[in-house]
Write a structure and sequence with these properties.
By secondary structure, this protein is α/β, with parallel strands linked by helices. The protein is built from 10 helices and 12 strands. The protein has one domain: Spore Coat Polysaccharide Biosynthesis Protein SpsA, Chain A. The longest helix is centred in the N-terminal third of the chain and has 16 residues. It is globular, with a radius of gyration of 19 Å. The relative contact order is 0.14.
């Protein structure tokens, strides 16, 4: 029997040409369990997670879940924390495997839970950039403002201060669009000098991300409102969310989010999600 055609393979597994990327450097199996088990409940494609070398225990757990790993030996350099270095590792991998995937998502790991397939409804090849809280701008947020003013000129920082905060923790895109975004991210990360890193801390990748989202016209991207596909929850009031009997998080009007990020900021939600995915 001849092997199935690419179209037939995708029909058998719609996730067959998709990839989920995550960074869990320094995490143990318990810290990745909710991410992995909730993802695997809805998604059957490839997953690649960065872990700290040697990471024997967490690697063993991830491989049982069908997750590929890349071990990272050096977790910190003079100018690049692992938060920033992950983009270069993703870029190297995707350049090598770009013909293998049509869609890619990169995601934070520790505080993310999936409630649907993360690619459901994503039809545009553009980078999907997701906003955080409904009301706060970069200039109104002390931490994001510090990162932006540490990385960019006063003129660009003033422009960004008027913009809503886009979360660098999750982006969904076609492979080509995501590679183009990563190339810009990596170039700017590598240009951050040691003195800036020491002054503003590891979160400067969030500043660079927001610069690309809001001020770089060459980025093929679209900005998506919070509490639609993704609920990024830390800047929102607890009253904005409802928990059902199955420990799924909804908006108050009943919308079920595909992805919930930063759910652990609310103790009652964290307790229920952890119980749902507790080892059996």
């Amino acid at each position: 029997m001849p092997p199935p055609t690419p179209a037939a393979s995708v029909a058998l597994n719609p996730d067959g040409r998709r990839l989920v990327l995550g960074a869990a450097i320094g995490f143990d199996a318990a810290q990745v369990r909710i991410f992995v088990q909730s993802l695997r409940a809805h998604y059957k494609g490839d997953v690649l997670i960065l872990i700290r070398w040697p990471g024997v225990g967490v690697a063993r757990y991830l491989k049982r879940q069908g997750v590929k790993v890349i071990r990272v030996f050096q977790t910190r350099s003079f100018t690049r924390s692992v938060h920033a270095r992950r983009y270069a590792i993703y870029l190297k991998f995707l350049r090598k495997h770009r013909s293998r995937y049509d869609q890619v998502m990169h995601s934070d790991v520790r505080d993310v839970v999936f409630q649907k397939n993360p690619f459901d409804g994503i039809t545009s090849p553009q980078c999907h950039f997701y906003l955080e809280g409904a009301a706060r701008t970069i200039g109104e947020d002390e931490t994001n403002s510090r990162w932006v003013r540490g990385c960019f000129s006063p003129a660009d920082a003033d422009k960004l201060a008027q913009c809503r905060i886009s979360c660098s923790g999750i982006t969904i895109a076609s492979t080509a669009s995501f590679i183009a975004y990563l190339e810009k991210m990596v170039a700017r990360v590598r240009a951050v000098p040691w003195r800036i890193y020491r002054k503003i801390g590891h979160g400067y990748d969030q500043a660079i991300h927001n610069y690309l989202v809001h001020l770089d016209p060459t980025i093929d991207g679209m900005v998506v409102e919070n509490n639609r596909h993704i609920a990024t929850m830390a800047l929102e009031p607890r009253a904005a969310y409802r928990l059902d009997h199955a420990a799924n998080i909804h908006s108050t009007d009943g919308h079920l989010f595909a992805i919930c990020h930063q759910y652990d900021r609310f103790p009652d939600l964290r307790k229920e999600i952890e119980a749902k995915y507790a080892p059996r």
